[in-house]
Specification:
Number of helices: 11
CATH architecture of the largest domain: 2-Layer Sandwich
Largest sheet: 5 strands, mixed
Structural class: alpha/beta
CATH topology of the largest domain: Nucleotidyltransferase, domain 5
Strand order of the largest sheet: 3-2-1-4-5
CATH class of the largest domain: Alpha Beta
Oligomer: single chain
Bound molecules: 5'-O-[(R)-(carboxyoxy)(hydroxy)phosphoryl]adenosine, zinc ion
Protein backbone atom coordinates (compact mmCIF):
# COMPACT_ATOMS: atom_id res chain seq x y z
CA UNK A 1 0.00 0.00 0.00
CA UNK A 2 1.18 3.51 -0.82
CA UNK A 3 0.26 6.01 1.88
CA UNK A 4 0.91 9.72 1.30
CA UNK A 5 0.62 12.59 3.74
CA UNK A 6 -0.45 15.71 1.80
CA UNK A 7 0.03 19.21 3.23
CA UNK A 8 -1.58 22.40 1.87
CA UNK A 9 -0.96 25.98 3.06
CA UNK A 10 -1.05 28.03 -0.15
CA UNK A 11 -3.67 30.54 0.93
CA UNK A 12 -5.97 30.68 3.95
CA UNK A 13 -6.67 27.03 4.73
CA UNK A 14 -4.22 24.93 6.72
CA UNK A 15 -4.88 21.38 5.53
CA UNK A 16 -3.47 17.88 5.79
CA UNK A 17 -4.74 14.59 4.39
CA UNK A 18 -3.65 10.97 4.31
CA UNK A 19 -4.35 9.25 0.97
CA UNK A 20 -3.98 5.53 0.30
CA UNK A 21 -3.09 4.22 -3.16
CA UNK A 22 -3.82 7.53 -4.86
CA UNK A 23 -7.57 7.55 -4.36
CA UNK A 24 -8.68 6.46 -0.90
CA UNK A 25 -9.13 9.27 1.65
CA UNK A 26 -7.95 7.97 5.04
CA UNK A 27 -8.27 11.44 6.58
CA UNK A 28 -8.73 15.06 5.56
CA UNK A 29 -8.42 17.95 8.00
CA UNK A 30 -8.94 21.61 7.04
CA UNK A 31 -8.49 24.51 9.46
CA UNK A 32 -10.10 27.45 7.69
CA UNK A 33 -9.16 31.05 8.42
CA UNK A 34 -12.18 32.45 6.60
CA UNK A 35 -13.81 33.87 9.75
CA UNK A 36 -10.62 35.74 10.53
CA UNK A 37 -10.19 37.23 7.05
CA UNK A 38 -13.88 38.05 6.56
CA UNK A 39 -13.54 41.34 8.47
CA UNK A 40 -10.96 42.46 5.88
CA UNK A 41 -13.07 41.42 2.89
CA UNK A 42 -10.25 39.21 1.61
CA UNK A 43 -7.15 37.30 2.63
CA UNK A 44 -4.68 39.27 4.76
CA UNK A 45 -1.35 37.59 3.78
CA UNK A 46 0.63 38.39 6.93
CA UNK A 47 -2.10 37.07 9.14
CA UNK A 48 -2.55 33.99 6.95
CA UNK A 49 1.07 32.88 7.37
CA UNK A 50 0.99 33.42 11.13
CA UNK A 51 -2.19 31.37 11.40
CA UNK A 52 -0.58 28.56 9.38
CA UNK A 53 2.33 28.50 11.85
CA UNK A 54 -0.10 28.02 14.72
CA UNK A 55 -2.39 25.52 13.02
CA UNK A 56 -0.05 23.29 11.03
CA UNK A 57 1.15 20.94 13.75
CA UNK A 58 -2.28 20.15 15.25
CA UNK A 59 -3.76 19.78 11.75
CA UNK A 60 -1.10 17.24 10.73
CA UNK A 61 -1.38 15.35 14.02
CA UNK A 62 -5.15 15.21 13.59
CA UNK A 63 -4.82 13.92 10.01
CA UNK A 64 -2.40 11.18 11.10
CA UNK A 65 -4.58 10.19 14.04
CA UNK A 66 -7.84 10.20 12.01
CA UNK A 67 -6.10 7.95 9.47
CA UNK A 68 -4.79 5.72 12.29
CA UNK A 69 -1.47 6.00 10.51
CA UNK A 70 1.98 5.72 12.04
CA UNK A 71 4.92 7.64 10.56
CA UNK A 72 6.49 4.36 9.52
CA UNK A 73 3.38 3.57 7.45
CA UNK A 74 3.94 6.57 5.15
CA UNK A 75 5.50 6.24 1.71
CA UNK A 76 6.11 9.97 1.15
CA UNK A 77 5.18 13.50 2.17
CA UNK A 78 3.69 15.76 -0.51
CA UNK A 79 3.30 19.51 -0.09
CA UNK A 80 1.98 22.45 -2.12
CA UNK A 81 4.95 24.63 -3.16
CA UNK A 82 3.08 27.09 -5.43
CA UNK A 83 1.25 29.03 -6.69
CA UNK A 84 0.04 30.96 -3.68
CA UNK A 85 1.06 33.42 -1.00
CA UNK A 86 4.81 33.18 -0.39
CA UNK A 87 4.62 33.42 3.42
CA UNK A 88 1.84 30.83 3.58
CA UNK A 89 3.56 28.38 1.23
CA UNK A 90 6.78 28.66 3.24
CA UNK A 91 5.10 27.27 6.34
CA UNK A 92 3.87 24.10 4.63
CA UNK A 93 7.05 23.51 2.63
CA UNK A 94 9.35 23.89 5.62
CA UNK A 95 7.24 21.68 7.85
CA UNK A 96 7.07 19.05 5.11
CA UNK A 97 10.83 19.19 4.62
CA UNK A 98 11.49 18.83 8.34
CA UNK A 99 9.14 15.88 8.68
CA UNK A 100 10.39 14.12 5.56
CA UNK A 101 14.03 14.60 6.53
CA UNK A 102 13.46 13.55 10.12
CA UNK A 103 11.48 10.44 9.16
CA UNK A 104 13.61 9.51 6.16
CA UNK A 105 10.72 9.87 3.71
CA UNK A 106 10.70 11.13 0.10
CA UNK A 107 9.57 14.75 -0.32
CA UNK A 108 7.28 15.71 -3.20
CA UNK A 109 6.44 19.30 -4.20
CA UNK A 110 2.97 19.60 -5.72
CA UNK A 111 1.53 22.38 -7.87
CA UNK A 112 -1.62 23.72 -6.19
CA UNK A 113 -3.52 23.73 -9.50
CA UNK A 114 -2.55 20.13 -10.16
CA UNK A 115 -3.78 19.27 -6.66
CA UNK A 116 -7.16 20.81 -7.53
CA UNK A 117 -7.30 18.75 -10.73
CA UNK A 118 -6.15 15.60 -8.91
CA UNK A 119 -9.09 15.65 -6.49
CA UNK A 120 -11.02 14.24 -9.45
CA UNK A 121 -8.97 11.01 -9.30
CA UNK A 122 -10.40 10.32 -5.84
CA UNK A 123 -13.33 8.86 -7.75
CA UNK A 124 -11.67 5.74 -9.15
CA UNK A 125 -14.18 5.56 -12.02
CA UNK A 126 -12.84 8.88 -13.33
CA UNK A 127 -9.36 7.34 -13.52
CA UNK A 128 -10.55 5.08 -16.30
CA UNK A 129 -11.16 7.94 -18.74
CA UNK A 130 -8.50 7.84 -21.46
CA UNK A 131 -6.40 10.91 -22.29
CA UNK A 132 -6.57 13.54 -23.68
CA UNK A 133 -8.81 15.23 -21.16
CA UNK A 134 -9.93 18.82 -20.94
CA UNK A 135 -9.25 20.54 -17.60
CA UNK A 136 -10.81 23.72 -16.36
CA UNK A 137 -9.32 25.22 -13.20
CA UNK A 138 -11.50 27.97 -11.77
CA UNK A 139 -10.33 29.31 -8.42
CA UNK A 140 -9.78 32.56 -6.56
CA UNK A 141 -6.50 33.18 -8.37
CA UNK A 142 -6.77 31.23 -11.63
CA UNK A 143 -9.01 30.56 -14.59
CA UNK A 144 -7.30 28.17 -16.98
CA UNK A 145 -8.44 25.87 -19.74
CA UNK A 146 -5.91 23.07 -20.30
CA UNK A 147 -5.49 19.99 -22.42
CA UNK A 148 -4.16 17.11 -20.32
CA UNK A 149 -2.20 14.50 -22.28
CA UNK A 150 -1.21 12.37 -19.26
CA UNK A 151 -0.35 12.70 -15.58
CA UNK A 152 1.67 15.89 -15.23
CA UNK A 153 1.34 16.76 -18.95
CA UNK A 154 -0.57 19.97 -19.59
CA UNK A 155 -1.00 22.25 -22.59
CA UNK A 156 -2.53 25.65 -21.89
CA UNK A 157 -5.41 26.51 -24.22
CA UNK A 158 -6.35 29.78 -22.57
CA UNK A 159 -6.51 31.69 -19.30
CA UNK A 160 -7.93 34.87 -17.88
CA UNK A 161 -6.38 38.12 -19.05
CA UNK A 162 -7.57 39.97 -15.95
CA UNK A 163 -9.67 38.69 -13.01
CA UNK A 164 -9.96 35.02 -12.14
CA UNK A 165 -13.50 33.63 -11.97
CA UNK A 166 -13.43 33.31 -8.16
CA UNK A 167 -11.90 36.76 -7.88
CA UNK A 168 -14.82 38.16 -9.93
CA UNK A 169 -17.27 36.42 -7.57
CA UNK A 170 -15.44 37.88 -4.56
CA UNK A 171 -15.26 41.43 -5.98
CA UNK A 172 -18.87 41.54 -7.18
CA UNK A 173 -20.05 40.15 -3.83
CA UNK A 174 -18.22 42.93 -2.08
CA UNK A 175 -19.79 45.55 -4.36
CA UNK A 176 -23.21 44.10 -3.56
CA UNK A 177 -22.51 44.21 0.18
CA UNK A 178 -22.31 40.42 0.48
CA UNK A 179 -19.79 38.68 2.70
CA UNK A 180 -16.43 37.07 1.88
CA UNK A 181 -15.90 34.59 0.26
CA UNK A 182 -18.10 35.92 -2.50
CA UNK A 183 -18.80 32.73 -4.44
CA UNK A 184 -21.04 31.01 -1.89
CA UNK A 185 -22.62 34.39 -0.95
CA UNK A 186 -23.51 35.18 -4.58
CA UNK A 187 -24.82 31.65 -5.11
CA UNK A 188 -27.13 32.04 -2.09
CA UNK A 189 -28.34 35.51 -3.13
CA UNK A 190 -28.80 34.40 -6.75
CA UNK A 191 -31.12 31.59 -5.68
CA UNK A 192 -33.75 34.26 -4.93
CA UNK A 193 -33.08 36.38 -8.03
CA UNK A 194 -34.02 36.46 -11.69
CA UNK A 195 -30.99 35.89 -13.96
CA UNK A 196 -32.74 37.74 -16.81
CA UNK A 197 -33.21 40.99 -14.87
CA UNK A 198 -29.95 42.58 -15.93
CA UNK A 199 -28.24 42.23 -19.28
CA UNK A 200 -24.53 42.07 -18.46
CA UNK A 201 -21.94 41.80 -21.28
CA UNK A 202 -19.76 38.85 -22.32
CA UNK A 203 -16.19 39.71 -23.27
CA UNK A 204 -15.13 39.27 -26.90
CA UNK A 205 -11.47 38.26 -27.08
CA UNK A 206 -8.95 37.60 -29.85
CA UNK A 207 -8.00 34.22 -28.39
CA UNK A 208 -11.13 32.14 -28.20
CA UNK A 209 -10.11 30.22 -25.07
CA UNK A 210 -8.99 33.23 -23.05
CA UNK A 211 -11.29 34.75 -20.45
CA UNK A 212 -11.94 38.29 -19.20
CA UNK A 213 -14.24 39.17 -16.34
CA UNK A 214 -13.27 42.76 -15.57
CA UNK A 215 -15.84 44.19 -18.05
CA UNK A 216 -18.56 42.09 -16.44
CA UNK A 217 -17.51 43.31 -12.99
CA UNK A 218 -17.55 46.94 -14.18
CA UNK A 219 -21.00 46.45 -15.72
CA UNK A 220 -22.29 45.29 -12.33
CA UNK A 221 -20.70 48.34 -10.70
CA UNK A 222 -22.40 50.65 -13.25
CA UNK A 223 -25.74 48.97 -12.59
CA UNK A 224 -25.28 49.42 -8.83
CA UNK A 225 -24.39 53.07 -9.35
CA UNK A 226 -27.65 53.60 -11.21
CA UNK A 227 -29.44 52.54 -8.06
CA UNK A 228 -27.03 54.28 -5.77
CA UNK A 229 -24.85 57.02 -7.33
CA UNK A 230 -22.97 57.51 -4.04
CA UNK A 231 -21.18 54.17 -4.44
CA UNK A 232 -17.59 55.05 -5.35
CA UNK A 233 -15.56 52.21 -3.93
CA UNK A 234 -13.66 50.51 -6.77
CA UNK A 235 -13.91 46.73 -6.76
CA UNK A 236 -10.18 46.42 -7.40
CA UNK A 237 -9.55 47.21 -3.75
CA UNK A 238 -10.46 43.59 -3.08
CA UNK A 239 -7.23 41.55 -2.84
CA UNK A 240 -6.45 38.55 -4.98
CA UNK A 241 -6.01 35.24 -3.26
CA UNK A 242 -3.09 33.84 -5.22
CA UNK A 243 -1.19 34.17 -8.46
CA UNK A 244 0.93 36.86 -10.08
CA UNK A 245 0.36 39.60 -7.55
CA UNK A 246 -0.17 37.35 -4.58
CA UNK A 247 2.82 38.62 -2.67
CA UNK A 248 1.46 42.13 -2.66
CA UNK A 249 -2.10 41.06 -1.99
CA UNK A 250 -2.66 43.22 1.05
CA UNK A 251 -6.20 43.40 2.32
CA UNK A 252 -7.27 46.66 3.82
CA UNK A 253 -9.48 46.59 6.90
CA UNK A 254 -13.06 46.39 5.75
CA UNK A 255 -15.28 49.22 6.93
CA UNK A 256 -18.27 47.87 5.06
CA UNK A 257 -18.18 46.99 1.42
CA UNK A 258 -20.32 49.87 0.29
CA UNK A 259 -19.63 53.59 0.62
CA UNK A 260 -20.29 54.84 4.12
CA UNK A 261 -23.61 56.56 4.48
CA UNK A 262 -24.95 54.88 1.33
CA UNK A 263 -28.40 53.35 1.16
CA UNK A 264 -28.31 49.56 1.08
CA UNK A 265 -29.60 48.06 -2.15
CA UNK A 266 -32.97 46.38 -1.86
CA UNK A 267 -32.42 42.63 -1.23
CA UNK A 268 -34.42 41.80 -4.38
CA UNK A 269 -32.11 44.03 -6.46
CA UNK A 270 -29.06 42.34 -4.91
CA UNK A 271 -30.56 38.93 -5.69
CA UNK A 272 -31.34 39.90 -9.30
CA UNK A 273 -27.88 41.37 -9.87
CA UNK A 274 -26.21 38.34 -8.28
CA UNK A 275 -28.27 35.96 -10.42
CA UNK A 276 -27.62 37.93 -13.63
CA UNK A 277 -23.89 38.16 -12.92
CA UNK A 278 -23.61 34.47 -12.04
CA UNK A 279 -25.53 33.46 -15.18
CA UNK A 280 -23.18 35.37 -17.51
CA UNK A 281 -20.01 34.16 -15.79
CA UNK A 282 -21.15 30.53 -15.77
CA UNK A 283 -22.32 30.73 -19.38
CA UNK A 284 -18.91 32.07 -20.44
CA UNK A 285 -17.10 29.18 -18.74
CA UNK A 286 -19.48 26.56 -20.12
CA UNK A 287 -19.46 27.89 -23.69
CA UNK A 288 -15.65 27.82 -23.92
CA UNK A 289 -15.42 24.38 -22.32
CA UNK A 290 -17.95 22.97 -24.79
CA UNK A 291 -16.10 24.47 -27.77
CA UNK A 292 -12.72 23.16 -26.59
CA UNK A 293 -14.07 19.69 -25.78
CA UNK A 294 -15.40 19.41 -29.34
CA UNK A 295 -12.41 20.96 -31.09
CA UNK A 296 -9.81 18.82 -29.29
CA UNK A 297 -11.90 15.63 -29.30
CA UNK A 298 -11.24 14.95 -25.63
CA UNK A 299 -12.56 11.84 -23.87
CA UNK A 300 -13.66 13.66 -20.75
CA UNK A 301 -13.44 16.87 -18.80
CA UNK A 302 -12.15 17.60 -15.30
CA UNK A 303 -13.55 20.64 -13.51
CA UNK A 304 -11.50 21.89 -10.55
CA UNK A 305 -10.93 24.76 -8.11
CA UNK A 306 -13.12 26.58 -5.61
CA UNK A 307 -15.60 27.85 -8.23
CA UNK A 308 -16.29 24.20 -9.14
CA UNK A 309 -18.40 24.25 -5.94
CA UNK A 310 -20.92 26.43 -7.78
CA UNK A 311 -24.16 24.54 -8.34
CA UNK A 312 -25.18 26.38 -11.50
CA UNK A 313 -21.76 25.77 -13.05
CA UNK A 314 -21.82 22.08 -12.12
CA UNK A 315 -25.27 21.52 -13.62
CA UNK A 316 -24.70 23.56 -16.78
CA UNK A 317 -21.29 22.03 -17.47
CA UNK A 318 -22.64 18.48 -17.25
CA UNK A 319 -25.56 19.36 -19.51
CA UNK A 320 -23.56 21.22 -22.17
CA UNK A 321 -20.23 19.42 -22.59
CA UNK A 322 -20.60 16.38 -24.87
CA UNK A 323 -18.18 14.13 -22.90
CA UNK A 324 -18.23 12.83 -19.29
CA UNK A 325 -17.62 15.76 -16.93
CA UNK A 326 -15.83 14.91 -13.66
CA UNK A 327 -15.92 17.24 -10.70
CA UNK A 328 -14.90 16.84 -7.07
CA UNK A 329 -17.60 16.69 -4.39
CA UNK A 330 -18.52 20.26 -3.38
CA UNK A 331 -16.66 19.94 -0.06
CA UNK A 332 -13.41 19.06 -1.87
CA UNK A 333 -13.63 21.76 -4.56
CA UNK A 334 -12.22 24.49 -2.32
CA UNK A 335 -8.72 24.25 -0.82
CA UNK A 336 -7.89 21.04 1.04
CA UNK A 337 -5.01 18.56 1.05
CA UNK A 338 -6.60 15.47 -0.52
CA UNK A 339 -5.55 16.47 -4.05
CA UNK A 340 -2.00 17.10 -2.79
CA UNK A 341 -1.89 13.49 -1.59
CA UNK A 342 -3.31 12.20 -4.90
CA UNK A 343 -0.93 14.27 -7.06
CA UNK A 344 1.89 13.17 -4.72
CA UNK A 345 0.99 9.54 -5.40
CA UNK A 346 1.22 10.00 -9.19
CA UNK A 347 4.54 11.80 -8.81
CA UNK A 348 5.91 9.06 -6.54
CA UNK A 349 5.03 6.20 -8.87
CA UNK A 350 6.66 8.16 -11.72
CA UNK A 351 9.79 8.68 -9.55
CA UNK A 352 9.29 12.45 -9.47
CA UNK A 353 10.52 13.33 -5.97
CA UNK A 354 12.22 16.52 -4.81
CA UNK A 355 15.48 17.40 -3.11
CA UNK A 356 15.91 19.26 0.18
CA UNK A 357 16.34 22.55 -1.72
CA UNK A 358 12.66 22.52 -2.72
CA UNK A 359 11.54 26.14 -2.46
CA UNK A 360 8.22 27.94 -2.71
CA UNK A 361 7.26 29.34 -6.14
CA UNK A 362 4.42 31.86 -5.62
CA UNK A 363 3.87 32.27 -9.38
CA UNK A 364 4.24 28.62 -10.30
CA UNK A 365 2.47 27.60 -13.52
CA UNK A 366 1.21 24.28 -14.81
CA UNK A 367 2.66 24.68 -18.30
O1 LIG B 1 -9.65 26.96 -4.87
P1 LIG B 1 -10.00 27.91 -3.80
O2 LIG B 1 -10.52 27.38 -2.50
O3 LIG B 1 -8.80 28.82 -3.46
C1 LIG B 1 -7.91 29.26 -4.44
O4 LIG B 1 -7.06 28.45 -4.85
O5 LIG B 1 -8.10 30.41 -4.88
O6 LIG B 1 -11.07 28.89 -4.45
C2 LIG B 1 -11.62 29.94 -3.73
C3 LIG B 1 -12.56 30.70 -4.64
C4 LIG B 1 -13.08 31.98 -4.02
O7 LIG B 1 -12.92 33.02 -4.94
C5 LIG B 1 -14.53 31.68 -3.76
O8 LIG B 1 -15.38 32.81 -3.83
C6 LIG B 1 -14.85 30.68 -4.86
O9 LIG B 1 -13.69 29.88 -4.94
N1 LIG B 1 -16.00 29.84 -4.54
C7 LIG B 1 -17.13 29.84 -5.26
C8 LIG B 1 -18.04 28.97 -4.59
N2 LIG B 1 -17.39 28.46 -3.49
C9 LIG B 1 -16.15 29.01 -3.49
N3 LIG B 1 -17.48 30.49 -6.38
C10 LIG B 1 -18.71 30.31 -6.86
N4 LIG B 1 -19.64 29.53 -6.26
C11 LIG B 1 -19.35 28.84 -5.14
N5 LIG B 1 -20.26 28.07 -4.56
ZN1 LIG C 1 -7.13 26.62 -4.54
Amino acid sequence: MTLILGIETSCDETAAAVIANGHEIRSSVVASQIDLHRQYGGVFPEMASRQHVMAIQPVIEQAMSDAQAKWDDLSAIAVTYGPGLAGSLLVGVNVAKGLAYGRGLPLIGVNHLEAHIATNWLDASFQELPFPLLCMVVSGGHTELLLMGGYGEYHLLGSTIDDAAGEAFDKVARMLGLEYPGGPAIQRAAAKGNPASFSFPRARLDHRYDFSFSGLKTAVLRAIQQYEPSLQRPADKVPRREGADSQSAGASPRRGARASGSRPLHPKTVADMAASFQAVLVDTLVTKARQAATEYEVHGMLLAGGVAANQLLRGRMKAAVPVPVCMPPVALATDNATGVGVAGYWALIQDRTDDWDLDVVPNLRLT
